[in-house]
Amino acid sequence: MKLSIKNTSQILSKTDLLVLFARKGSTPKLPKGVKVPPLALKSFKGNEREMRLTDATAGPAGRILMIGVGDKKQLDPETLRRCGALAAKKAEKTSSASAAVWFDLPSGRQTEALGQALAEGAVMGAYRLSDFQSTAKPATLKRLTFYGNNEFKVGAKYGQVIGHANCLARRLKDTPGNLMRPRDLVSEAKKIAKAGRHLSIKVIDEKAMHYLGMGSLLSVSKGSSEPAYLIHLVYKPKKKSTRKICLVGKGLTFDSGGISLKPGGKMDEMKYDMSGGAAVLGAFKALTELDVDAEVHGLIPTSENLPDGLAVKPGDLVTAMNGLSIEVLNTDAEGRLILADALSYAQEKIKPDAMIDLATLTGAVVMALGHELSGVMGNNQTVIDDLVASGKRTGELVWPLPMHDVHQKEMKGKVGDLRNISSPGAGAGSSTGGAFLSNFVGEIPWAHLDIAGSAWGAADRDYQGGAKGTGVGVRLLIDYLQQG
Ligand code: BES
Ligand code: ZN
Ligand code: ZN
Question: Cα separations (Å) of 302 from 183, 278, 299, 319, 420?
């Protein structure tokens, strides 16, 4: 799909579908030369997400789609994001080859944010995973043009980039596990590094992991014929930056639980266990296109977790790069094992000013927060607060969970320094998971996002939803990085 952005002071170019917006109780302002049947205008109420499709009677547009934005005093980005998705979906449904989205509503100081949301929504709404069905037809919508004022145009430019990055993360996670193995995630990372400006990549293989002492990460891939990797992406902006941020994403391309095998029902959902890694890759795709001004490192430990004669067993002792020994009491708590070495590596080799990890770490966070929010905890209130604020701005909501001494105590080992699960019945599974990770970050300001619920299966919000991957984290991280 080819996207372009123009000013509403320009004449509308020929288009199959023209999308117009109106507040409740009003009718859309029509671009010059466009005429619609008066009855269609009259019966349109402008309720939020109300849609009316009508043929144009004159002008450069074939058909007109009116979308209502409701009567909220201040038009908000989330409404526009949803409207953008409705527009893209309707364009596809009406087999339009070209569509124009005409934004001409009074929106005050928020115009840029609204432009961004509308473009994000349209791009995210057009997402589909069709490559795998023999009957799949190519998308009909080939050209999408946004029209708005100058501020709107700036936002729409950002929104397009961020929308595409979200779709990348969704494609990676929706792709079946046999087609998105650790090595495939490595190729995807290399593609991003090659295409983007100021990007470089280093891939640490199992041999190098042995050398670095990453016994924790290595223990997880032992049961799989696919080797593990630690992907290290680096973005260095043109102007030397004073901030160095490290993003770490769990990249478990399939989690069977290992010897502590998961129940069979819905095990297929564990292809989403690389959603943290997908979020980091999506963020990297966007941050180079947006010329973010921070130095950003991205770490993705990637592996499969499978049972096998060579697999790590409950009771085995492994040693992480920072020297801490870990009793693996449950091989299904593997996310924290691969993150332990990635976080140790960041602490020792990268030494960032702040570090954020994203991981589908615990089923407990799905119980606590469902599929609409991510849990956050960490050792630094500022990083946590900043992520909560980014969550509010982007609609990728983030909710603080406790991480206290009791949770730290739960993770102390008997044979080794640590154990990878708490005692039965201790509860607070997300907090003990976070507490385990805190042993590998040292003094670096750090926050951990548990995205096991929010990464997939969210309620339908037009631009995402259903049982599929959400791409959560991409928009959140970009917003976080853009706040100087
Ligand atoms: N990948 C899972 C967590 C998960 C659960 C993600 C449901 C998405 C949906 C993780 O590796 C895991 O299995 N965690 C265990 C930890 C437990 C053994 C301490 C869990 O949550 O049951
Ligand atoms: Zn697991
Ligand atoms: Zn897992």
Answer: 8, 11, 10, 18, 18
Residue 7 exposed, middle or buried by CB count within 10 Å (0-12, 13-18, 19+): exposed
Catalytic, 336? Answer yes
Confidence band (pLDDT; 50, 70, 90) for 109?
Answer: confident
304 lines ligand 1 (CB under 6 A): no
Q: What is the CATH number of the domain that holds 47?
A: 3.40.220.10
Q: Which is catalytic among the residues 128, 143, 191, 262?
A: 262
**What value does the mean pLDDT take over residues 209-217?**
98
331 alpha carbon – ligand 1 mean position (Å): 10
Active site residue 171: no
State whether the beta carbon of 465 lies less than 6 angstroms from ligand 1: no
- Ligand 1, residues 261, 275, 361: which to mutate, most atoms within 8 A of Cβ? 361
Tell me the pLDDT tens digit for each residue of 407-436: 999 999 999 999 999 999 999 999 999 999
List the CATH number of the domain containing 287.
3.40.630.10
pLDDT band at 130 (very low <50, low <70, confident <90, very high): confident
The answer to whether the predicted template modeling score (pTM) of the entire model surpasses 0.90 is yes
Residues 322, 414: one domain? yes
The parent domain of residue 71 ranges over 2-163
| CB of 112 shorter than 6 A to ligand 1 | no
Please check whether residues 282 and 350 belong to one and the same domain: yes
Identify the DSSP state of 11: P
Q: Which of 312, 362, 366, 432 to mutate to test the pocket of ligand 1 (most atoms within 8 A of CB)?
A: 362
Burial code (b: 16+ CB inside 10 Å, e: under 16) for 433-444 equals bbbbbbbbbbeb
Describe the strand order of the beta sheet including 143-148 as a list of residue ranges: 2-7, 143-148, 98-102, 15-22, 61-68, 51-55
Compute the distance from residue 292 Cα to the ligand 1 centre, in Å: 33
